[in-house]
Amino acid sequence: MSEQFNKFDLEFKLNANEKTLAIWFRLGDKDVLVNPYGLFKSLISSENITILVQDATKILVGDLSFQVDVSEQTHSFTWTISSYLNDMVLELVFERKEYRQKVIETLKELFEALQLDIATAYKNYIELAELEKLIEQIPLLNLFESLYKITTKDIVEETFHFECIIVEECSDMNFIIGFGNKKYETLITEWSTNMEHVRHTIESLVYYAKNEQIVKLYYEDSPTTITISPKSILESTVSMGSGTAFKYKDFFLVNISPNDFSKGADLIAFCNPKQFVKELYEGLLIPAIGRFVKDDEFDWKYLYNQIKSPVIEEYINGKENLISGVKKRQTIISHIITIKPDYDVLYEDETGVCYRHFGDMIDLYDDDNLVCSINIPGVDEWYKKYIDSTNWGTLTIDINFDLDSWNTQGLEIAKAIRNQLPDNFDLWYAYPYEDEKNRNRKPILIYKQ
């Protein structure tokens, strides 16, 4: 017997009663305002979603008037709607093709109206730039509806971006997160985010690369949710005479859902697995660099070590089969050295104190006790090249100075230093301020080879 579907009564229109142009859903004998971000989210996520709202002010703060649980089936989408306004629980089943078509159609109509600066119910609550990110992702969603087998030729691999931009005096951290040019700013609080659980989740991702994992980074009680789904996509076929050999390429399909304090829709993209893991892992470590201060109200050393993982670093370094065994599952970092060239500065320690050593011997101390001495031939000459080529009045570098080659040499020196450091030291490489090309690049974690 064929399944009976409800009519998906969704329109971008001028509401007769409210006299307001918006996306409206007909619920019984009443039009209910639709949250465009929630509507888009329903195409990619099966969970409780804020789709129906009393008014546009509830889009940014959440609305408990209506709760919509969305579930996706092969031929349908189901809404289970509950509302405390009239003690209602209602299940509606919509035909899949009609549902997707109307969702995409109404979102595009809203986008076109905002482009023309036509007044809608969403003024001050839905930004054109954020809606544009949403519209740009529709081709990717359509890809999964294709009747043909997806190959790597259909995939646009995007770069995952995760960068701390501000660290407050407390444990609030501002991050930029997204893919390529589709990014937004979010907040994370350490006290509400279980960083150890985040580390275990990433470890599970690299250990069992076929299983979906979910990372939740909380700001207060609302998480930015990162859902990572490993995918093997057909890359090529080779005739073997008696049959055909299939070659696949691995991707992560990543979905970022903003927390309740961030504007914007979900972001979704195919990513290179190692680039994604490296960006997320190092991005979580970076806020603690230079902050191991003993009298600080917040323990950044503890945070750093909650995230620190030899398992993840083995994966980033190219060890594919982690199940065969990792020598260490946990390590405690007591010291951080950041190579950070500046006037009379070669490196910064974990507390933010700067040091300059003369010659190729570097002595490292812990509370005036010598921890180790490192001999790196060429490090002093490398540092002096930068000092001699910099105009300290204008903070600019001689245009004839080959910064690219100098940084390449610097990274090789950093690797040599790393290999002589004890296991309770971490080493980072930061580009100098005068290097305009790399000025805004994040520090790079140097892994022991």
Relevant terms:
449 residues, alpha+beta, five-stranded mixed sheet, 25% helix
Folded structure, characterized:
A hairpin with a 2-residue loop joins strand 10 and strand 11. The radius of gyration is 26 Å and the shape is elongated. It starts with 9 loop residues before the first strand and ends with a strand. The longest helix has 20 residues. The strands form seven sheets. It has a five-stranded mixed beta sheet with strand order 18-17-16-23-24, with helices on one face. A four-stranded antiparallel beta sheet has the order 1-2-3-5. Strands 4-6-7-8 form a four-stranded antiparallel beta sheet. The chain is built from eleven helices and 24 strands. It has 449 residues and is an alpha+beta fold.
Outline the fold blueprint.
Layout: E1 10-14, E2 21-27, E3 30-34, H1 36-41, E4 48-49, E5 52-53, H2 58-61, E6 66-72, E7 76-83, E8 88-95, H3 96-115, H4 128-136, H5 138-143, E9 160-167, E10 172-179, E11 182-189, H6 195-207, E12 213-219, E13 222-239, E14 244-257, E15 267-271, H7 273-285, H8 300-307, H9 310-316, E16 335-342, E17 345-348, E18 354-355, E19 361-366, E20 369-375, H10 379-388, E21 390-391, E22 396-397, H11 403-418, E23 425-429, E24 444-446
Parallel strand pairs: 16-23
Antiparallel strand pairs: 1-2, 2-3, 3-5, 4-6, 6-7, 7-8, 9-10, 10-11, 12-13, 13-14, 14-15, 16-17, 17-18, 19-20, 21-22, 23-24
Helix pairs in contact: 3-4, 7-9, 10-11
